[in-house]
TrEMBL record:
This is Periplasmic heavy metal sensor. It comes from the Bacteria. It comes from Hymenobacter ginsengisoli. Keywords: Signal. Residues 1-22 form the signal peptide.
């Protein structure tokens, strides 16, 4: 179950990171981070300053995960560990951007998204 959860969460990130690592495109990374930050800004009611800070955190997270993928090719254990560290650090930084109430809503949205990914992966079985 835990391995399945990790695969469901990491596989889309790893595939996206692999594509980005194969052809580094800072503009695409920035656009993806901006899009994700915009969705979160709407869902969480962020201020303009929070939105800008969140966009920066999300861009850094994408860059670190892309670097992890390039650095740990052929070593899935090291890749999982590095990405887990990056996710934890990103969550810590996001928590610093959001108010406590916004962070609770963020955690709820994140849990729902993981649930959607998990249920979608079960459909194909």
């Amino acid at each position: 179950m835990k391995k399945h959860f990790i695969l469901v969460v990491l596989l889309p990130l790893a595939l996206a990171a692999a594509n980005a690592a194969a052809q580094p495109n800072p503009t695409a990374q920035a656009a993806a981070a901006a899009s994700q930050a915009q969705r979160m800004a709407q869902e969480l009611g962020l201020s303009v300053e929070q939105h800008a800070r969140l966009r920066h955190v999300l861009l850094l997270t994408r860059q670190h995960m892309d670097a992890d993928l390039a650095a740990h090719q052929g070593d899935p254990g090291a890749l999982r560990a590095a990405m887990a560290f990056d996710r934890a650090k990103s969550d810590e930084l996001i928590r610093g951007v959001l108010t406590p109430a916004q962070y609770v809503r963020y955690q709820q949205f994140k849990a729902a998204r993981i649930g959607q990914l998990h249920s979608t992966s079960q459909v194909g079985r």
